[in-house]
Amino acid sequence: MRLRIDFGYPAFVIYGHLLVTLVALPLALLAYRRKWSRWILLPTLLVTIWSLASFALIRFGLDLNGRTTLPTNSFLASGAGRVLDMGAGSGRSAIMVLEARPQATLVALDLFGEEYDHHFGASQDSQMVGRARLLSNFRAANVESRATIVAGDMRQMPLEPASFDAIVSSYAIDHLNSKGIQQSLAEANRVLKPNGEFLLMVISKDAWMNFTWGPVFFHGGTRPATRWTQLLNEANFDVPEQGTKPATLYFLARKR
Ligand SMILES: C[S@@+](CC[C@H](N)C(=O)[O-])C[C@H]1O[C@@H](n2cnc3c(N)ncnc32)[C@H](O)[C@@H]1O
Asked: Which of 14, 130, 202, 252 is a plausible cystine mate for 112, CB 3.0–4.6 Å?
């Protein structure tokens, strides 16, 4: 049987806007057929269009449960090396790196704790379920021979100093509080080899987020790009490149 990748992001995040369409569209049709006031027709029509557009942007634009690509080709340009994924979750960022860099190996680190449950659904045994889902996704992507799973806290990682050529961390460090962010950036610096690269991706409340979720979007940890650069500098990283992807800020940092 062919395995299928399932990153496990919840249905309400991806299909939630369709619930709004389900209410707004029949109302708009009713208002049109019964020739109700345009003050009912117009708002319901606008809400229908907004909810359908938002659904399309999230489902097909962000495509959280589909594969994603590196935001910059400069990351691990040599194509080889030992990479760490801090907060690997169900493997989307790990698979992004392993597929783009077929000579690289990767250690996928996650706490598989409360935050994991929050994103991927609570279970009796998150450690077991988390590991099994990661492994299944690595197998489905045919990268399992180059990936290792480690359970651990990115604020205090059970990993040797100067043992990685590069690190990726996507939508994970920004879930921590300020102290946790500083601790994990210091940890990233500790486990990287001199000159090692760090690709940090964080959620950004940009035009995509404002259009689709607006004030409903309460994702903690959104900070301006200047603050992330400052935090990286304070943790002894230079930041030679930074940029954006939909809903995302990325920083390509280098250990000093
Ligand atoms: C939104 S998910 C991102 C997963 C993956 N990187 C991706 O791009 O899809 C955030 C992940 O960070 C993990 N996480 C949160 N706090 C952590 C910590 N202190 N140490 C290790 N992992 C943590 C959570 O368990 C969760 O799997």
From this structure: 130
What are the structural domain ranges in the chain? 11-62, 80-255
Distance set, CA 87 to CA 77, 165, 226, 231 (Å): 22, 17, 23, 18
Cβ pair 8, 133 in contact under 8 A: yes
Tell how far the Cα of 85 is from the centroid of ligand 1, in angstroms.
9
Ligand 1 site residues (CB inside 6 A) read 87-89, 92-93, 110-111, 115-116, 119, 153-155, 170-172, 175
Cross-strand bridge partners of residue 109: 86, 150
- Token pair, residue 217, equals 């979007």
Residues 155-191 pLDDT 10s:
999 999 999 999 999 999 999 999 999 999 999 999 9
Residues 6 or more apart in contact with residue 226 via CB below 8 angstroms = none
Q: What tokens appear for 10 in the block? A: 């919840």
DSSP string, 181-213: HHHHHHHHHHHEEEEEEEEEEEE---HHHHHHT
Give Cβ neighbours of residue 76 (< 8 Å, ≥ 6 apart): 83, 97, 101, 104, 165, 166, 197
Average pLDDT, the chain: 95
pTM listed for this prediction:
0.94
**Cα four-point dihedral sign 193, 194, 199, 202:** positive
- Which residue among 137, 157, 171, 191 has the greatest number of ligand 1 atoms within 8 angstroms of its CB, and so is best to mutate? 171
Whether the CB-CB separation of 171 and 199 falls below 8 Å is answered with no
Superfamily holding 80-255: Vaccinia Virus protein VP39 (3.40.50.150)
